[in-house]
Amino acid sequence: MSLRLNLKKKPDVPVEADSICPDKMEGLSLKDISALPLHHGNEQITVGDLFSITGKVNGEICLEGDTSRFKMVGASMSKGRLLIKGSIGQHVGVAMSGGEIIVGKNADNWVGPEMSGGRITVKGNAGHMVGCAYRGGQVGVTGGEIIIHGNAGNEAGNTMRDGLIAVGGSCGDFTGINMLAGTIIVLGEMGWRTGAAMKRGTIISMQDTEMLPTFTYACSYRPDFLRLYLRHLRKLGLPIEDAWISGCYHRWSGDSIELNRGEVLILDR
Amino acid sequence: MMRVAEKAKSEGNIKIVEDATCTFCGCLCDDMVLTVDVDAKKITKAKNACVLGKALFLNYEEEDRPFALIGGKEATTAEAVEEAAQILANARFPIIYGMSDTTCETQRKAVGLMDMLGGTIDSTTSVCHGPTGMALQGVGESTATLGEIKNRADLVIYWGGNPAESLPRHFARYAVTAKGMYTPNRKKDRTIVNIDVRHTKSVPVADIFIQVKPGADFELLWALRALVKNRHVDPNIEKKTGVSMKTMKDLVERMKNCRYGVLFFGMGLTMTRGRHFNSAAILSLGSDLNEYTHFIATPMRGHGNVTGADTVVAWQTGYPFGVNFSRGYPKFNPGEFTATDMFVRGDADAGLILASDPGSNFTQAAVDHMKKIPMIVLDPKYTHTAKLARVAFTTAHYGINVPGTAYRSDGVPIELRTCLDSKYPSDEEVITAIYRRVEQLLIAKKRSKGANNKRQKAA
Fold first, then answer.
1. pTM
2. For domain B68-127+304-394+426-453, which CATH number applies: 3.40.50.970, 3.40.50.740, 3.40.630.30, 3.20.20.140?
3. Cis (ω within 30 of 0) for the bond into B64?
4. Which of A135, A158, A216 has the most B C-beta neighbours within 10 Å, making it the best mutation to test the interface with B?
5. pLDDT (tens digit per residue) in B127-153
6. Are A173 and B335 in contact (CB < 8 Å)?
7. Is A134 within 8 Å of B333 when comparing Cβ atoms?
């Protein structure tokens, strides 16, 4: 049985809950966990003030109730599992380096910003800035996987350097902007200005999209590496069609304003 | 409060105030000559003022309103200060918003108040040139003062702005018909380009007008950047932007070969789809052109002292707007700590609106939340937001009744001279009074919490 944190009452204002993380609860008694700090607006409270705590500490935490106002859950997580039954607030899995976070419903903006390892799965939709760098930051995600089953907002993978972001639904504008490396796979439609200022990296979409004028059509081919990625995503529960695995893709090179070593692969329908 | 030596001459009931500053727009023209009828408490003439400045000065009238309202009922300033302080001291996620029409001295006090409360501070920047503030963190900027532009610029490009109507003296004082050190023949020494989605009143001033399709500014900027760098550009860009490749290449040649170029950009760029990336694209274009010549890119700011709000919040906290102190140190995150987002999400549990009227221009969802929480408003006028507020203060008008400092849109500080006295307090005085009372309440709260903890431990 995992450690269960059951929300007593939805807080009136946002709560910064970076202490809700397997790393920070490891080796603590239920009483110690209850005394861990949370930031309820400008007031410091404890985990026990908002949650009833049961179960045992074994590296897995189950968060129950409407936690959509809880920010920074799983911050700097390096191991263990965090199961969030409902929706979660902003900055889930910020700077995460290992372990797994599963969000049962939706996640607000900034899912896994600047993460370097581990996996975040969102069963519903995610907000803007999935796997991004913070404003003014030069490097975003440097490793790990973010899997969104629903839609994602703008700027998914902004400045990502490595790792995988997969979106089962559609994405907003500026997917992979300023991308340095890594892979973004979007099964639905992408918004405007995909890959703007990307230096390297790969963005893949199963739907047609309008390219920026600084991208050049290179060729059509069947990339081997993509089969591995798509089979992996199918195992993770994304609805991957056989035709996509064996399909032919148009390769666009860009962004010529930068190094022109990035690629956008669009399924040839 | 800093007092500026008044340059005023009096004759009977008529006073002439020279070098007064107009605070209507970001130009902050500081060459006003105001004729004031002291007995009638009216400004009768505003020499050098543009149509907007005249509207500000000649329509000025001190309304006979209560000093304060609590729940719509008349109250004294002291009673309202007490009520406001109670609201803020008991809030967990308060926000101060506005600050674009007040002095830097008041803005500084507002930052101190939010720092003490562990709340959030945001200015009207977040709904105008906030995207530019975000962009320049990522790509930097090549910039200059308007004085340097006046003296040196021989290629002036206006993009997504309509200064003829929003900053009327921009052309005459700085960029088009102004006589500069190296542009003695005024407009003859300059090439003026206007890029916009529509034919505005600023277009007749321009030598070249380029009409871009709505929503295609980013693509046009991106194509220009590529052409400046001699990179490939897809010919389909003409269809997307509505601008021919020939026009783009001509503009690029002019930009590369000018002596000193400037890109002025407005909210037509920063508040359309792409926002901070549109700003980043134009700032980057300005920087790219420095490979060939001297080029700068600078925003055209609207409200009188909105640049001051950015400047003061930045030197106090390290960030220009959207700053939160709830963890005891400043955190910057537009989208999370910006006023409209906080109201729409229902995060804020109290609000202090300083010299601004979000009730008239925020989204309905944001206004709906503002109606639900206790709001405090400081404004010379009875605004839409004041009507929603639990506590509304009537304050004196900065630049007319209240002296101080304001920043011009290029970041140059300008002193404000007064021309008339007011019976109402300045917003700086009200904020200071609220600060002092909140400080007392927080100390009392801390003591009471400490005593409770001791009692619990003893038990």
1. 0.93
2. 3.40.50.740
3. no
4. A135
5. 988 889 899 888 999 999 999 999 999
6. no
7. yes
